[in-house]
Amino acid sequence: MWVKIFSIVALLLFVSYEGFAKAERPEYIMVIHGGAGNITPERLTKEREAKIHAKLNEALLAGEAILKNGGSSMDAITATIKILENSPLFNAGRGAVFAANGKNELDSSIMDGKTLNTGAVSGVRNIKNPIALARAVMEKSVHVMMQGKGAEKFAKKHDIERAPDSYFRTDVRWQQLLRAKANEKAQLDNPVDYKFGTVGAVALDKHGNIAAGTSTGGMTNKSHGRVGDSPIIGAGTYANNESCGVSGTGHGEYFIRATVARNICAMMEYGGKSLKEAADAVVMKQLVEMGGNGGIIAVDKDGNYALTFNSAGMYRGVVASNKPATTVLYSSK
Question: Would residue 216 show up in a list of annotated catalytic residues for this protein?
Answer without folding.
Answer: no
